[in-house]
Known about the structure:
GMP Synthetase, Chain A, domain 3, Rossmann fold, Helicase, Ruva Protein, domain 3, 5-stranded parallel beta sheet, 19 helices, 57% helix, 9% strand, binds adenosine-5'-diphosphate
Amino acid sequence: MNDKLATQWARIRARLRSEYGETAYKSWLKPLTLDGAADGTVRLRVPTRFMRNWIESQYANRLSTLWASENPSITTVEIDHVGNRPANAQDMAVEVADLAPANIQEEGSLSLDISAPLDDRFTFERFVVGKPNELAFAAARRVAEAEAVPFNPLFLYGGVGLGKTHLMHAIAWHISQNHPQKKIIYLSAEKFMYQFIRALRYKDTMAFKEQFRSVDILMIDDVQFIAGKDNTQEEFFHTFNALVDQNRQVIISADKSPAELDGIEDRMKSRLGWGLVAEIHSTTYELRLGILQSKAEQMGTEIPSKVLEFLAHKITSNVRELEGALNRLVAYASLVGRDITLETAQDVLHDLLRANDRRITIEEIQKRVAEHYNIKLSEMHSARRSRAIARPRQVAMYLAKQLTTRSLPEIGRKFGGRDHTTVMHAVRKIDELRSTDAGFAEDVELLRRMLEG
Ligand code: ADP
Ligand code: MG
């Protein structure tokens, strides 16, 4: 492997570490090793399939963006796992086997302090309220301030980086300050699963159940994680019911509404929707500007309002990216001793700005490509393999890879639930055809320009 690639990878790792924090980095990103790169594809490896899937679903987009900005010749990031375990097996044996090397490092029996640490920046005071999050915020405050459980559960949902975890921590801070005797557990669904599996392994499930069922407030973050994990779900369901029955407050977050949670049992979905369900919507310009102003003030840095407006206008994906952009800008300006201006912002953030510029959706691409080749839109999802259909479909997959930040599995799913390897194959095939057939290359180029224009 060449030095240049290794250097680029080192820089990307440093970025990931600062963006996601030490804990996430250590658990998921640090174990990634660089295998090599060829034909625009960089290959990364992790020890287990379980980790691969998790990284694929949580970090693949960011990995692609970072690689593309470090090395423009990279168009695809492939993540593989070292072992070779059967696909789709969801039984507990596999859940345990997958977790074993990576995540169950602690020795001894179940730890007494089961709750995850809280981030002290995540308070109500630091949460900027706007139209998109006002219901979620009001509901969170209500739960935090109420003497009796107002609704059970409180279910918060919305896309990544929109403030779900922030609100949950804020509730926990508030309650722990005003009622220090109350027992609160805050945990990601992922950690819940580890704890559960560990308890099984140490034959300590009684203590496990005991701990969870004796809390006053249970918060489980990112519950979508236990989709398809049947045993963990079962245990979670019992814990949930036991607490709700005893009138203890339960607070859940997820990336989707209860009804839309795939891979979660129906009885669970229905119970999750019993209390108050509050969506956190995508940010508006006003909210983004408000958040930037508040963060700039907290950092004690003078930033021209033109620059804040520019960022609020350009970085629309989520609050986490917005914060990241601001941090980077401030760090850069102070390091090189430059004033923060529009030019500095454009300079320092060019990769982020570019990623946020691309707002093309896979649906748009499918529609355009189908029109262009005069086939039915439904053929994009169909199983038919005749060349007249399959080729346009491959072109659409190719363009989806080039023009969106979607990962290969996500793209596959949008094309009638195809596997990520099918998408990879399509991308390679179209690349090959473009280099051998000038007419075809022009065709694809034309489509691309239409979509980007
Ligand atoms: P989620 O859990 O929904 O993925 P987080 O709660 O982790 O998102 O939020 C991502 C980052 O954005 C955090 O640093 C958080 O403090 C910040 N953030 C999100 N929404 C707001 C808001 N309304 N006001 C201030 N900061 C916010
Ligand atoms: Mg979160």
